[in-house]
Amino acid sequence: MKLVVKNGTVVNPLVGKTEKTSIVIENGVVTEITKNPDTKGAEVFDADGLFVAPGFIDIHVHFRDPGFEYKEDIISGLEAAAAGGFTSVCTMPNTKPAADNVETIRYMYERASKGNGVKLYPIAAATKGLKGESLAPIGELAEGGAIAISDDGRPIQNTDLLKRVMEYASTFDMMYVSHSEDLYLSETAQMNEGYYSTVYGMTGCPVVGEASQIARDCMMAEYLKLPIHIAHVSAALSVDVIKFFKERGAKITAETAPHYITLTDEALGGFDTNTKINPPLRSEADRLAVIKALKDGIIDAIATDHAPHHQREKEVEFNNAPSGIVGLETALPLVLKLYHDKELPIERIVELFTAGYKIMGIEGGRIEVGKPADITVFDPSYQWTVDKNMFKSKSHNTPFHGFHVKGAVSATIVNGKIIYSRDF
What we know:
Elements: E1 2-12, E2 17-26, E3 29-34, E4 43-46, E5 51-54, E6 56-61, H1 74-83, E7 86-91, H2 102-112, E8 119-125, H3 138-143, E9 148-150, H4 159-170, E10 175-178, H5 183-186, E11 191-192, H6 195-200, E12 204-205, H7 208-224, E13 228-230, H8 236-247, E14 252-256, H9 284-296, E15 301-302, H10 311-314, H11 331-340, H12 346-354, H13 356-360, E16 375-385, E17 404-414, E18 417-421
Helix pairs in contact: 4-7, 7-8
């Protein structure tokens, strides 16, 4: 099978090129990058006026499968990923049973093999049952195909256990992904602690609850001389901590999510449970600090923290609602606002959506002859209105319903096959 992606502006940060050209794909592999492609016998995708990028990766998604398939399952999650331009995803382990055993990891791969082709990489539990009490069988999980470990959803509060988790994981070249949260400060909180928590009369979680745990985890990484990845950075103080340890030479990478650069805690004024997220939406000063951290390279990647919840779970009193929103299908236009506002060049936008490959040690992130043809094609100028009822995800818990946005995925290509193309 031959496919030619013709006359697009190819944005290839790892190769160091942005140019208008065409990509020839045969049998799932890039065979030529040329301005004069031979299209005889080929399927042609006209990318004139579009950006063509290495396939995006989301290193932080919750597909709820096994155990909570009424919210999302692996098949629907992969469909949502493709609609968002993601050719690869890394799934978090807070399933039921937790991904603390080889059988669950194998189940995830088996289910993904029946999906649309988006590549799924499971992140396994760091502790048994995600309870933070004893080590999960990390060696077995690595052999079973897990690519990293985390107790995401809850932090590892026991510092000695954290040390042993990181040491043991390193023997299998596995990254530890830190969910940095001080439960003593956050357990009863409903939103960020600050001006708006006072105005709205809700219990707040201070930014120090996140930043102090990031400091502890980064300090441990520096002491052990081991890498660590910090999930869902939301606050200016957290950025300062990460910057401090990076400048000391610690092996730290970090991610943030599109909602932290788009919304603030003011958005909770309507008590819409779709604005309830963990970590919570922060202040305007925090939002601006996170954007600056993306510019400066302190934060390395965009990840959605896609967290589906059924409508009936969110249609309750605010303090009883679970935290989390879906994010795969709105990520690109929300982040592209930084491009349209001239905050970030398109090369940096693409870099943020593809940095996860290097962070997780997965092949990808470049368009190159001889490499698998995983490609995201997007229109930076297409204007549309977010409609949650059009989502591929099973769940519709988004605060962005009705938002007018600019930029959309035109096509998602995995192994040379167009698995999604925009129909709106």
